Amino acid sequence: MSNQRQASSASQVPHLSPAELSYLYSSLSLPKTPIRPDGRSPTQFRPLTAETNILPGTNGSARIGFADGTQAIVGVKAEVEKTVLANETLARNDGGAGLDRGEQEGSAAVGGHGSWVQMSIEIPGFRDDDALPVFLSEMMRESLVGAVGTREASDMAGGLKERLVINKRWHWRLYIDVLLLSQPLAYPLPLLSLTTHLALLSTKLPKRKSQGEEDPFFDDDWAVAEYLYPRPSLSSGKTNSTGSSFVRPPVTLLVISVGENIIFDPNREEIAVADAVLAISITRDSEAGTLKLLSIRTVDPPSRLTQPGVPNSENVSMLGAVAPTEDVAVLNPATGEEEVPGVWRPRRGGVKRSVIAEMVKTALKKGGVGEEVLEGLEGVEVS
Amino acid sequence: MGIIILPPVVEDILPRHDESDDSMSVDSDEDVEMSGVRAPKRARIGNQTVSTGVVTPGEVVTDDPQWMRGHGTYMTPLSTSIIATVAGTVHKTNKLLSVHPLRARYTPEIGDLVVGRIVEVQSKRWKVDVAAPLLAQLPLSAINLPGGILRRRTSSDELQIRTFFSEGDLVVAEVQSVHQDGSASLHTRSLKYGKLRNGVFLAVTGTGGSGASSSTTKGGVGAGSLRPGAGSGMGGVVRSRRQVWTVSTHNGGGEVDVILGVNGYIWISKHADGASAASSTTDHVSITRMEEMVSTSIYSSQNDEIPPQTRREIARLAQCIQVLVQGGIRVDEETVMGAYEASLQVDLEVGDDEDEDEETRHEGREYLEGAKSRRILELVVQQVK
């Protein structure tokens, strides 16, 4: 039972007493200025340490450690694979004229396939087929393969799966192996997502020597290998498609709402009192540098499963000590539930639309959290 | 402001020099010889003594038969090598080698003030997590039953056992007795003890009450203060004269209680003295019923109204303790208060430096990580030394 609960809910719910939960909730839901237990501002992240290219045998790898001691390593391996052509693409290729332009369109028509990206997540204490790793890997893979370029014209501007196309018959297959090195103290999604992002940024594929539809043939020299996601510094020098150098792999942020407040990078205690937990995937996919929302997933908030507090008026061990009319239930503006101040009520789930909209806006807006995170990760030296 | 990404900290390979080493190393030649044995396997530098590095369980500390084994080590009957059983630093007293663990679970002793969390409710007792290897028990007969006067427990008390403490509740208690197997029996038969509310809980690791010495804290400062448990790892709460005290906080925070459980569990809450606790539950209380009122409010799980200023200062105190723990400094009244004052001072220093408008300056300025935490540690170390 407890194991099941652990796997289905947002994190290993710490056992917190109703008094603690109530204190946390009321601190975090103070209008405008939430007081987080560690003093951060609502949009502030805990400092993290990051490095890339730590695994010699991979195409790209990264390690990120959070200040609370949780660490993750991600390795990306690429493999050339023969594309199994679907009937319709074959048919369309037959129909198209053998022009140079037609060939380009043909390679775009193959367009990549979501199954070319394989992701496996290993979390200590969980089996491969437990709900948490499976759900996490699907959540991250979906945003990775779901990131589709807006402009069809430039061949590399799209998401990850378009980048994996070599030609009509061949493609790259990516294996992304995510390893959480520590116990999942908080919901590990943001850590794993940031690490995956960094690993993909550092991923290099060998330079192709073959042309067009030939069987792929690659340069032995690893030094000339090309980044899967071209870096801006390189693009100014030699890459011709400037648009694609702004495209970045998606990153998934964990955002919670407590009352009217929106809090980023929540720690375990903060998740425990959240009204709503959202995993918001964002990416940058155009030269304008604006962020795009890829997906929103709600995560089951563990506050649902907590123990309710007992108001003094109903407390049997305090009978006769309290005037019964003292506790007046007030309406929580965020959830629309009645509650006695100072007494914890488990959240029933559900927040107002405006709160959700605000969460997405804070993540996406110019100079907002999403941009800061992407810039921060960009700043990590890819050696 | 939003996110800070740091390059990985490279662990300094150079072992620390403790003052105690120099005074204790009886014969430096032997030490050279011993490290010579270990040299091929581990890149220890130069003529370091045994007592500097960190050893892991199963690692051979020395093969030399002249040493006696102490705590944290064992010897196989057929060989003379001393093997570590815990991860920690090697210490030697004359010819006795012992390994002090970096972190250990709490070993209860009679009279310890502990903070615990109820994990299980049984028919006549609670099982309490006190960070010890075994759960402690709190019998129903060892608590103050409501009704003011001390009385025998009745069957109705047994039936409503959950109204006193239920799963997840935090209690502050005293260790009444320690059983043969090392598990503890607690009691809360005092007005000081009972259920905790109006505050925050934090757990610190370290060697707990097992008498961490402050002389080994030097190397932990600054080196890797972002990683918990880094540094010398000898932090944690130590047994001391005062485990519970009241801080009169700055910035309009009012009075805040700090309870340092010997087991490393800490509770920081708004100060509630007897009279105000009673008056918060009811307005009209006669002086003769005062004690009764106090004892009944022990089992409340409803928080009082706590102003934001107080919450802010509680958060600051909690962070100060975290900073101390991450810096590997022992946690007691002196260091906590030192860190608290230091954090205020650091805030002033930082506030002077910045010429930004009020809005951005307040943004996250209460977060004491990174540079701020290092500065606080410096100040605390100065004060303590």
How is this structure best described in words?
The complex is a heterodimer of chains A (383) and B (385). By secondary structure, chain A is an alpha+beta fold. Chain A has two domains: 14-44 and 240-383, no CATH class; 51-99 and 109-230, GHMP Kinase, N-terminal domain (Ribosomal Protein S5, domain 2). Helix content of chain A is 27%, strand content 21%. Chain A has eleven helices and 13 strands. Chain A has helices at 2-8, 18-28, 87-95, 100-110, 131-146, 160-163, 189-201, 232-237, 268-272, 353-364, 369-379, and strands at residues 48-52, 60-66, 71-82, 117-122, 170-180, 204-205, 226-227, 251-258, 261-264, 276-284, 291-299, 330-331, 338-339. A five-stranded mixed β-sheet of chain A has the order 1-2-3-5-4. In chain A, strands 9-8-10-11 form a four-stranded antiparallel β-sheet, sandwiched between helices. Residues 1-11, 90-109, 150-156 and 234-243 of chain A have low confidence and may be disordered. Chain B has 385 residues and is an alpha+beta fold. Chain B has two domains: 17-101, OB fold (Dihydrolipoamide Acetyltransferase, E2P) (Beta Barrel); 113-384, no CATH class. Helix content of chain B is 26%, strand content 23%. Chain B is built from ten helices and 20 strands. In chain B, strands 9, 10, 11, 12, 13 and 14 form a six-stranded antiparallel β-sheet that branches. The radius of gyration of chain B is 24 Å and the shape is flat. Chain B starts with a strand and ends with a helix. Residues 15-49, 209-233, 275-285 and 354-364 of chain B have low confidence and may be disordered. Chains A and B meet through helix 2, strand 1 and helix 11 of A and strand 1, strand 15, helix 6 and helix 7 of B.
Strand content of chain B: 15-25%
Secondary-structure-based class of chain B equals: alpha+beta
Tally of separate helices of chain B: 10
Q: Which pair of chains has the greatest number of interface residues, and how are they split between the two chains?
A: A-B, 64 and 61 residues
Q: How do the SSEs of chain A run, as a string of H and E? A: HHEEEHHEHHEHEEHEEHEEEEHH
Largest sheet of chain B: 6 strands, antiparallel
Mean pLDDT of chain A: 75
Distance between the termini of chain A: 46 Å
| Total beta-strand segments of chain B | 20
Poorly predicted runs of chain A: 1-11, 90-109, 150-156, 234-243
Query: What ranges of chain B have pLDDT less than 50 throughout 5 or more consecutive residues?
Result: 15-49, 209-233, 275-285, 354-364
- Oligomer type: heterodimer
The count of domains of chain B is 2
Subcellular location (chain B): Nucleus
Biased composition (Acidic residues) (chain B): 20-33
Domain S1 motif (chain B): 109-189
Region (Disordered) (chain B): 14-33, 209-235
